Task: inverse folding
């Protein structure tokens, strides 16, 4: 049976050991936060793809995903990082989008949300996220194929929604290659 | 107090497990690749405009993802992977050390029963003041309006003022030699609830808090008689209320270094401590 004094010492040693382990873990955790303006996810993550903008607490990038076949929809990848030290509400319902088809006609686009799952959500401070959304023309328009699309991300960071924020259009255009790849891919 | 300590330790285990999961997840960014993304990532333009919902069949309970496009996902959903953390409570687990002054005047008496007889003793501390040092564990939760509540546990030992005089007051051992008695080891255990208010200035946080709880100093008396060694343990438990000031420096969104100082209302029993605080929410959720 250990003497109480030895027990006390071993407990203190255990705490010291835990502190050392904590310090080591802290270094790892500390390196993982989103750095404002980096447009890059956590360690090991690639840079945000596509056009970039900063709106409020959010760094945002929009990249297109293109289908080689005629389509009435346009998928875009939206990367976003919280540059503030507090949570920020990311409101995809506040996005506006327009597209232009092969014939040069402009169409208002809306996010395809058949399950009505898109709603404003909080993004933790110094973290990043990604969503891929599909933009579709309204019922009136049936474009043969989308040539380009622009997304106004000015009100993506909630709080700027009620304000008259200047539009921040981020646009994607169909690349000329025959073999189409997603933007940002090597 | 035992119940408080048990609850504290249970919460600590859960929090530490959460912290491990936090680190294992790659830290701050899980991006939108959480869940079962590997089953069919959306590469190139193969998905735009397609239905995407009726492809592969899932096997068993595992879900096979078919797309990362909102509205076409089979397993995931909008917000998965990036919105979860903001919904967590702003919990903090802190490991640290402390040193505190406290009243040491511990008197105790008892009886040791050896084969040769019964020996009574009295113990008196040689000093009225003592210093305790050890490790501290603290769990706290940030609340709106810059408030926080929590619980803490201190385990250590008296590192000064430990000397104690042991006197045998009576015995019925007859002519038998008296045993050798000593009293030295004093363990310190304290714990209680904490409530405070914090102000934030950039990466610095200044808090005023009050800790209320109980502390226990235990004293072991040993009696050695030949090969026979007997030990008596005495406890002195007291309640305390301790206002403190606390300074936090945020090393990262999920880690802060804290220093604290305070004293009991009479100004006698002072504490100084420091620790590493792991936060489940970045900057405690801005609360």
Result:
């Amino acid at each position: 049976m250990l003497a109480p004094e030895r027990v006390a010492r071993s407990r203190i040693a255990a705490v010291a050991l835990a502190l050392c382990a904590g310090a080591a873990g802290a270094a790892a955790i500390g390196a993982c936060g989103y750095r404002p303006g980096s447009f890059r996810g956590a360690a090991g993550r690639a840079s945000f793809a596509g056009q970039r903008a900063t709106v409020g607490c959010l760094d945002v990038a929009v990249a297109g995903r293109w289908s080689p076949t005629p389509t009435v929809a346009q998928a875009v990848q939206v990367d976003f990082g919280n540059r503030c030290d507090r949570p920020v509400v990311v409101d995809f319902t506040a996005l506006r989008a327009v597209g232009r088809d092969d014939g040069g006609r402009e169409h208002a686009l809306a996010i395809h949300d058949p399950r009505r799952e898109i709603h404003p959500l909080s993004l933790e401070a110094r973290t990043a996220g990604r969503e891929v959304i599909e933009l579709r023309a309204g019922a009136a328009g049936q474009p043969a194929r989308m040539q380009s699309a622009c997304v106004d991300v000015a009100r993506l960071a909630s709080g700027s929604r009620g304000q008259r924020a200047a539009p921040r259009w981020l646009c994607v255009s169909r690349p000329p290659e025959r073999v189409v790849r997603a933007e940002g891919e090597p | 107090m035992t119940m408080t300590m048990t609850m504290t330790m249970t919460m600590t285990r859960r929090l530490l497990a959460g912290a491990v999961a936090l680190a294992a997840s790659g830290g701050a960014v899980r991006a939108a690749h959480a869940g079962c993304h590997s089953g069919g990532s959306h590469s190139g333009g193969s998905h735009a405009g397609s239905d995407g919902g009726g492809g592969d069949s899932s096997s068993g309970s595992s879900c096979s993802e078919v797309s990362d496009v909102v509205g076409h996902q089979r397993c995931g959903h909008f917000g998965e992977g990036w919105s979860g953390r903001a919904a967590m409570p702003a919990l903090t687990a802190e490991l640290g050390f402390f040193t505190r002054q406290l009243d040491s005047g511990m008197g105790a008496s008892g009886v040791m029963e050896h084969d040769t007889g019964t020996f009574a003793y009295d113990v008196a501390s040689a000093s009225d003041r003592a210093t305790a040092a050890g490790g501290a564990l603290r769990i706290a939760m940030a609340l709106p309006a810059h408030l926080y509540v929590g619980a803490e546990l201190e385990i250590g030992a008296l590192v000064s003022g430990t000397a104690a005089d042991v006197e045998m007051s009576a015995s019925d051992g007859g002519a038998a030699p008296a045993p050798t008695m000593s009293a030295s080891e004093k363990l310190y255990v304290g714990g209680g609830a904490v409530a405070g208010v914090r102000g934030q200035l950039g990466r610095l946080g200044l808090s005023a808090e009050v800790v209320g709880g109980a502390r226990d100093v235990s004293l072991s008396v040993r009696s050695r008689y030949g090969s026979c060694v007997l030990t008596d343990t005495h406890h002195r438990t007291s309640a305390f209320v301790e206002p403190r000031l606390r300074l936090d420096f945020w090393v990262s969104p999920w880690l802060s270094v804290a220093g604290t100082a305070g004293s009991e209302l009479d100004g006698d029993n002072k504490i100084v401590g420091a620790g590493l605080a792991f936060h489940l929410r970045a900057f405690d959720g801005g609360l």
